[in-house]
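Lab notebook, bench 4. The sequencing result for the construct came back, and we need a structural model before the next group meeting so we can plan mutations. Quick request posted to the team channel:

Model the 3D structure of this chain.
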Amino acid sequence: MAHLGFERRSFLALTGASVSAPAFAQPARARTLRFMPQAALAVLDPIFNPTTIVTTHAYCVFDTLYGADRALRPHPQMAQGHQVSADGLTWTITLRPGLRFHDGEPVRGRDCVASIRRWAVRDGFGQVLMRAVAELSAPDDNTILFRLNRPFPALPDALAKPGASPCFMMPERFAATPPDRALGPDAMIGSGPWRFLPAEYNAGSRAAYARNEAYVPRDEPAEAASGGKRVHFDRLELVWIPDGGTAAAALRTGEIDWIEYPLPDLVPVLDRDRGTRTQIYDPNGFLGFIRFNHLHPPFNDVRVRRAIRDVVVQPDFMTAVALPQDWQPCHAMFPCGLPGATEFPAAPRGEAAMQRARDALREAGYNGEPIIHINPSDFPAVTQQGRVTVDLMRRLGVNIQAVESDWASIIARRANRAPPAQGGWNLHNTNGPAATIANPAVSWAIRMNGAQAWAGWPTDDAVEAQVEAWTLAADAEAQAAAFQRLQALLWEAVPIAPTGLFRLRTAFRSDLTGVLQAPNPMLWNLRRG
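Done. Here's the predicted structure in token form:
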């Protein structure tokens, strides 16, 4: 296949060629943290749009009842703790004293109940939890009460879910908003360590926050989304720079402090610079994959999905986004290396596999109709893999139409269920942080519950029954068996086609300390050395 390398301008930006970095205001430099996220922040509501960039923003503004550490173990966060009845059917969660929203109002139990209900409508784990709930109430301002119709020992795990729609607490008046209606800037009032500054928000370009002076962090050390969220800066700015080379140049000159994802070909340059350093973003990595739209031909035919899965040459995808030492093949539905994940034997690749894919397309009735591949132009970890997919489709003889646009526009089109010719889509590339797709409860990528599923909307009753079996398993042995059966079903149903497991690097100024490893950037625990 043709080499699909990184952008030439990224190299020029670091080798003295004339590439101007944007100028940022310098007053109070030492007290301001400037962060360049993986994509533009164009939406603010983490329940309406649970993408990584929106979740990063939301972790600044909101807080959660429980927080997950690096091993995904839940710990009390806003919760002081909980009590469980002997039969496992009643959970009583007590709030920490002194919690207040940014407008000065106390955090009350009824705020949390409304927030949980709004979250659970959209989130897969929340949906499973609420099927076990007979009653959810707030007996008083400091208490949240779950009465269950069956034991649900993973309740803290659900409330501590670290990514792809964490259960953020917000005031009841905002949590009462239907989850299919996005909250705007004036509703960004939480109890988290940073206060959102709506007057300074420029959608898709810049967001600003002030330190929440009233925030009382927990005593425990910070670890991923758990522990004490201590803020040592007065101000935070999320600044979007579309060109990766320009962003790296701004990091080297000190105009920004941290880039979430530097372009992989720039990592060695940043490692050699005394003023910058890199580290693995999340040791658990990211599973890359192709997502099919199951509503429309030809990918509503499982024969086609299986054939595409079996012509994916994972090294082609991985070398487009990661350094040689930072990726591995992963023929699995869950991230390889995590407990219980099954890796399936890779089918032989080559011209015979390509011909089988062409035959599957023909047998499914494909006759050269345009196939729409949507791809962000400003999200390197996805952009390059998408271009590899387009190249693969062309070699299969597919009439592929590559639609590239900014990330916000792609997210909007991805939500469109209309036929591809009427504004919808057929397939796209993305990736999932391992922590957000680690098991059947949290993974949005494998659910096949039709209209409630993540965009692509696959339906498979056998898969959904096995997800329920895993969730309700009586013991670890039964759960492990259910997990193995589920993975075998998923491999045949093909909700996604894996492209490999990779670890991204994050880059920051050498004098910035306390950068946490997690599935999301955690914008606390940071100091300027």
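The two ends are 46 Å apart (CA to CA).
Will bring this to the meeting.
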